[in-house]
Amino acid sequence: MGACLFDSQGRCLAANRALSALISLPSPLHQLSRFFLDSASSPDLVSRLGALFRGDHAAFSLPYYRIHNDAPLDLELHVSAVHDTNGNVSAALVLVTDERIHHLRELELKQFSNAVENSGSAVVITDSQGRIEYINSRFTDISGYTLSEVIGHQPSFLKSGNTPGEVYANLWATVLSHRKWRGTLHNRRKDGELYWSLQSISPILNEDGKLTNIVSVSDDITQLKEHQQQMERLAFFDPLTDLGNRRNFRDHLEELLHSRGEGISALLLLDLDHFKKINDTMGHEAGDTLLRSVASRLRFCINPPHTVHRLGGDEFTVLLRNLSSIDAVRNYCDDIIELLAQPLDIGTHQIQVTVSVGITLLGVDAVDVSGLLRNADLAMYRAKHVGRNTYQFYSAEMNAEAHRALTLEHDLRQALDRGELKLVYQPQIDLKSGALVGIEALLRWNHPQEGPISPAEFIPMAEETGLIVSIGRWVLLQACRHAAKLRQHLDAPFRVAVNLSARQFDDLGLAATVKSVLEETELPASFLELEITEGLMIDNYSNSLMLLHKLRDLGITLAIDDFGTGYSSLSYLKKMPVQVLKIDRSFVQDLPDDRDDLAITSTIILMARQLGLQVLAEGIETSEQHQFLLNSGCPVGQGFLFDRPLPLEEIIQRYSQETLTAPQL
Fold it and tell me: Which of 399, 441, 464, 557 has the largest count of CB atoms under 10 Å?
């Protein structure tokens, strides 16, 4: 700040260096005097100085005093009287500031004020006690409150009750210790709507270090928070059913393992029976609707603190916490199975869902997530194996069975290459003449350590693993080779029957494979019969019909195996290009004593005759069964009464000397 002493005429008596620097002039006093007196405002200055020296007033100010140097310079003068020892005015003390600096500060303050007022963030300034002194327009936009409504109040009117009290305690402790606080508050607008606010609250201190004001800058992050919550929900919840997902399930199970009480806690693994069939036949939308309905029913019968989760696909889990007894676990399972079995309306269809449930007990069967899931999975597969629509508790024996199944699966993958698989043939006999008219190829596995493995055990395993495709082609090739060899020893025509699996039937190249095998083995197509089950046809009727026609065009015979045990739809049957119906052994074993089996068998034979189809009865073991079937019009049969399944060499030895005649079907 510049300073100088004036006499009553405005002449400069003394000046500091700051004044010379301010107006960019050297120190000589006469030059300073000239610049002040050459101003257009100098008459006013001299007049006021005269009044000051006369004692009319003790001080005055001239806010805009322009002098000229190289360019105009606006100064602000603050003048006060200087008295001598006698009390008379001896000089005038003039304090000089550059008006440009003052103007610049005003401009900066105005710019800052505009920036704050038009900020995208809400700004609130309070006194040291938190009473509001200022808010900008953005605060009004976000909260709905105007300045007149909030001035003098603390911002506590924004509280929603959802932010914990300790957050506010930490906020005030931080600010009162002269530090900046950053955090998130869940606030309430004037209209009652809740919103999330990201706050930055800073203390303002004076030159003595005392808190004078508090400035809060905040942003409405409600959309961001909702997006984060949505992302978190997607990370932990299944979007289709709104149940907890696999990650959520594992977290709950880990927590339950670490906080189990005195009661019984159990993990239930649920798998819908035949869900894939529903998905494939009715479409994925219907499948999704079914899953949502199942989830809704599970929520209905499983209440907190127990939880329901969807692992994926058609697998669900239930965590039961601290129950009083094993019977309570059983009761929950009974409720689940009963509720899910109630018919469901999906579109125009009404379907019934069954479920297989595996149960394992926490802390008893296993103490970790992986072990419990493995146990529940084993128990669930046992439930499917014993007939589905039921539940099974895990037992230690299941581990041994699972280990054996894994070992067999591994060995089955190599059984074909090691020559452990072989074919035997069940003779098919003309019930009237006793002549051989056909043979059915049956697959056998002689395990190097365990010996013969039942087809009922390894065939489903081959189906599940997909090995049945390569094994099935080998069976077809071997059966046709053997049939070609058998032709050389027999005079009469016959057929070799080969069963097709579901996996083979789904193979789009099946017809080409059959044609290739017939060409490779040089076996006439009329000597080959392919057997399919009713279920294979119904699962995908249009594709099945097209494939059967392709096979029939090759000249082979088509047979329906185990007729009467599946769908037995006559509307489908009459459209199928099949020639043979095989009566299942379950209808034959109690003939002729069981009246129901007698009626069913007679009806099948009569129906086949009316449709122009050939009939073959399986499982004939007694002469009474033989005679009844013959009298009922069934011309061909197979079973232990005639022969057990035999290797090809024994078939040749036993039947090559006989005169074989084709059956009159």
Answer: 441
Q: Are 287 and 353 in contact (CB under 8 A)?
A: no
Give whole-number Cα distances, 634 to 432, 434, 609, 662, in Å. 9, 13, 9, 14
pLDDT on residue 282:
78
CATH: 3.40.50.300, 1.10.760.10, 1.10.10.60, 3.30.450.20. Which one for 119-226?
3.30.450.20
pLDDT for res 659: 39
Separation of CA 535 from chain center: 33
Q: Would you list the DSSP string of 528-569?
A: EEEEEEHHHHHHTHHHHHHHHHHHHHTT-EEEEEEETSS---
Two domains, one topology: 2-104 and 119-226: yes
Nearest to 29 by CA among 16, 46, 12, 45: 12
Q: Are 5 and 92 in contact (CB under 8 A)?
A: yes
Say what angle helices 284-301 and 275-282 make with each other, to 10 degrees. Answer: 140
The rounded distance, in Å, linking the Cα atoms of 416 and 365 is: 37
Q: Is residue 662 predicted with pLDDT exceeding 70?
A: no
179, exposed or middle or buried, with CB in 10 Å at 0-12, 13-18, 19+? exposed
Which pLDDT score is estimated for 378? Answer: 87
Place of tokens 């739809």: 569
pTM of the model: 0.52
**DSSP per-residue string spanning 363-419:** TTTBSSHHHHHHHHHHHHHHHHHTTSSSEEE--HHHHHHHHHHHHHHHHHHHHTTTT
C-alpha 141/C-alpha 197 separation (Å) is 13
CATH of domain 237-394: 3.30.70.270
Whether the bond between 239 and the residue before it is cis, its omega within 30 degrees of 0, is no
Indicate the DSSP class of residue 276.
Answer: H
Distance CA 199, CA 122 (A): 9
Asked if residue 564 has pLDDT above 70, the reply is: no
123 with 138: CB under 8 angstroms? yes
